[in-house]
Amino acid sequence: MFMKICLTVLFMLSVSPIQPGVAQPLDVNLTVYGGSIFFNNPEYDSVVLVEFPFTLNRNEFSFFRPDSSDTNYFARIFAQINLFNTQGMVIDSNKTYFSAMIPGLESASITGYKLFNKLSLLLKPGVYSARLTVIDAVSKKEGQFFYDRLVVEPPVKKQLAIGAVTLAYNIKWVGDNPTDNSLMVTNGFKVLNCPLSIFSSHDTSVYLYAEIYNLEYSPEVPSQYRLTYQILTDSNRVFMNYGSREKDKPGSSAVVTEMFDIKGWLEGIYTIQLTATDLQTQQSDTTLVPFRIFTPLSSRTFTSGGISSADPYDSLSLEEKVNLVAYLLTPTQKHALDNLNEQGKLNFLDQYWKEHDENISTGIIENRLKMIERYRFSNQYFSIENSRQEGWKTDRGRIYMTYGPWEEKEEISAPVLGNPYVIWYYHSLKEGKLFVFEDREGYGDYRLVHSNVYGEIYSDEWKQRLEAGSTELY
To answer: The pTM is what?
Structure first.
């Protein structure tokens, strides 16, 4: 595999001072790749276990020998997750110390090796943000990963549901007695998470971990559940169909692991579609898990004309660049940005996009280009003023910039009764999401009045109208 694997080992020792022969990386900061996994297990009752897996580049750390009798070299690493509420206040945290070992200094500078670890928190349903900080305890170098918006939904207690979905470089059964980092073991499986769900074309496999909750189970009445897998392309077409398989229920919940052979797959975005069905109750749930395959720069074939360096971001004003991240920053980040001078803001934004580049191999920040397109579309079509510059501030602009283009739209500009409205449907989001916008003043200023997205505005009236199968008032 392209991504070589180096497991980390937990430790609770004090850090030794730097000694002769320590490998000193040249990079100023550490690169941190972070993700989040939501265990909406009803057994937790009213809280949700949220894991924050992360990977690190081994060659960015300093290695040393703790004493002359040990021929191995070690890096000492500290990691902490801070959780923020919507006001930007720290309300919870967790931390760990761990070490990485190499047999000799010649291994320290080799690229491609990853260190794996994770932290976890038990959270009440709500909307949060978080910051993961990693520090090399020897060199004091630091790296961070920001979680802009963490929406923790309540556990589903009566309907079959799929949760704890994550992709990994490798999954292996180790049982209840792992010999290495126990933090990487979930229900007996050692899971080497891929936090950003980005794989190299040199990788040969993508591993999936998930859990199924609320199966109808009785030890006296054996029964089964069915798993169905498909791989979709970025145009939502079926790329591969893996069919269905039936399994005996181990209890009211079950662990799902699967390996997909991606050797030879072209660069692009794919989606794993997993459907779980309880054959006894016929309840089912479907989850969509996107991932990207990229070709490393060293493997690319370039034309004589090279690659265009033109980036529309460079043509934006400072105000537009700030507007671009309005719905991405945490309250703490917004406060910090507002208090900087012009050059400080530019530096802050450059660093933000560098840390949030979803595909660092291309030299292009694709998700920033996507946000520019959403920003311009919002201004063009959702603005109320003639300047066409404030559409991004509207409710429709916020939802469009956050979730992207709708997959289906229902628009009633002249209802029999009531006000004009529009409904955006996002069927591919878990369980299907929707947003209802109503023009109550009649000036084209459509305000969000209902959504089934946790943390957004909710209306019983609109829920009943939708459930009735008609949104018209008579």
So the answer is: 0.65
